[in-house]
Structure formats: C-alpha cells, structure tokens
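step 3/5: co-fold with zinc ion
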Amino acid sequence: MSALLADLRRKATQRRVMYEDADWRCRKCHERCPERMDALPGQRFLTLDHVVPRSAGGPSEAWNLAVLCDQCNHDKGSKHDLSVWEGHPPWQYYAWQARMRARTLVAA
Ligand SMILES: [Zn+2]
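step 4/5: write tokens
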C-alpha cells in the first residue's frame, strides 16, 4: 500500500473513532447523522470541526476537533466558538494558548 493511501486510511479510521465516541451525534443539535459517504441527498452528515479555527492557528489534534453535523459546522463558520466545551476547555487548550502567547512574545 502506498504511503498516501495508508495515511488516508489512518485519517478515516481516526474520524470514525471520534464519531463512534460521540455516538454519531452532533455536539450542537444532538441529531444522529451518518458519515458523509453514507448520507442521502439532503441529509445531514457528520464533520470534524476545528474548535479553535485553523485560521487562528488551531491544530488538527483530537482535543481541538468537535463532531458537528455539516449544518451546525456551516452555521458556526470561522467563529471562535468554544461552547462545545461547555466552559471546560481541555488542558491542551491552555497549553496551546501558552505556546501561542510565547510565540507572540518572541515575534514582538
Ligand atoms: Zn448539528
């Protein structure tokens, strides 16, 4: 198997593990949705959303990914919406913030 194919397969598995973990429900509207490839036309499907948007430097690590249906993900857009953590961001979030702050200090 090519490295690219192996990488794609690994990512697909990771995604499915996170959907499984979320009981195939959107974190916002709690609707049960299938994977994109299993969705019927017009049916909502699950996506992985960057809680801290990529545009703000949010990493593609498990702590920063939330299972949202495509509709809720679309409504959220690139807003900085931490509400999926319900006031309890994971420790990795604070570590990331500290790293970002250190980087800003170095750049200044
Ligand atoms: Zn939703």
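step 5/5: annotate
Strands lie at 46-50, 65-69.
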